[in-house]
Design brief:
The chain is α/β, with parallel strands linked by helices. The strands form three sheets. Strands 1, 4, 5, 6, 7 and 10 form a six-stranded parallel sheet that branches. It has a two-stranded parallel sheet with strand order 2-3. Helix 2 packs parallel to helix 3. The longest helix has 19 residues. The two termini are 21 Å apart.
Length: 274
């Protein structure tokens, strides 16, 4: 269910250009996963249906940087890492004739994820055969480095191995060139961005929220994160504001600011009135 305010906001979404959504793990059923970067399949399917109901066109990430016009409500759905639990998400997208992009850690294809982090326990990864099937149905396969390392901490040799090596490995698996990239953890700087550009990628995405084309550099395309606790109303407000943080306090602050209303204490004071 979506409350009336969130639905009203959602109905006006999409007027400022395309939006890119970022997913990671998709868990079975409807229970809210513990990991912030995992989304229950039932919620994911409901989000897809909401996009369809709202007249959104789901394209691949590469379509955002091609020189062709896009429909008024365009969304690029992306998945980072390449977890095997994404297969039902792929099937759900294909059933709805929607496209999406997977950014793959090339070293771990068909294996278990080999990096660690808060909540990022080892997980089975998509197989090469399934990646090829996905591409054959119109899904896009992009690069996410060889080992999911923090690129800003890598020396020049490691940087080349992670960026160029991933591109080469994926091309060998897929049988075609790979031209889109996502920075692991969203971490990047000018040196890393230039290395990605020099490797021949056409576009890359970060984890900073906003409309996709807020930054004119195609190597810094913005995305919205979809979290484990995002219900459908929250998801609708994210589409409306192109922001990761769309709690009611922030929404109220936004509209009061547009009306020229100033409250003592700023945004924090608004919670007194909600």
């Amino acid at each position: 269910m979506i409350d009336p305010v969130s639905r009203w906001l959602w109905q006006g979404a999409g007027g400022r250009g395309p939006i890119v959504l970022m997913y990671h793990s998709i868990t079975p059923g409807s229970a809210v996963p513990e990991w912030r970067w995992a989304v229950a399949f039932d919620r994911f399917a409901a989000q897809l249906d909401l996009l369809r109901q709202g007249g959104w066109t789901a394209v691949c990430f590469r379509d955002l940087v091609d020189d062709k016009p896009l429909p008024p409500r365009t969304v690029a759905i992306t998945f980072d890492d390449g977890y095997a639990d994404n297969e039902p998400a792929f099937r759900a997208l294909a059933e709805r004739n929607m496209h999406a992009t997977w950014f793959i850690v090339s070293r771990d294809i068909g294996r278990v994820s080999g990096w660690t982090g808060p909540g990022a326990k080892p997980r089975p990864m998509l197989s090469a055969d399934l990646l090829r099937e996905m591409a054959a149905t119109g899904m896009e396969i992009g690069a996410h480095t060889r080992s999911h390392c923090r690129l800003t901490e890598a020396d020049e040799c490691r940087l080349h191995e992670e960026i160029v090596g991933c591109k080469s490995e994926l091309a060998s698996v897929m049988g075609f060139d790979i031209d889109c990239f996502a920075y692991p953890y969203g971490v990047h700087d000018d040196r890393v961005v230039q290395a990605v550009r020099n490797a021949g990628y056409k576009a890359a995405c970060v984890t900073r929220s906003g409309w996709a084309r807020s930054d004119p550099d195609p190597m810094r395309v913005r995305r919205l994160a979809v979290y484990n606790t995002d219900d459908l109303a929250c998801f609708a407000r994210k589409l409306a504001f192109a922001d990761n943080e769309v709690g009611w306090t922030k929404v109220a602050h936004y509209y009061l600011k547009r009306l020229g209303v100033r409250l003592p204490g700023g945004a924090n004071a608004i919670s007194m009135y909600l």
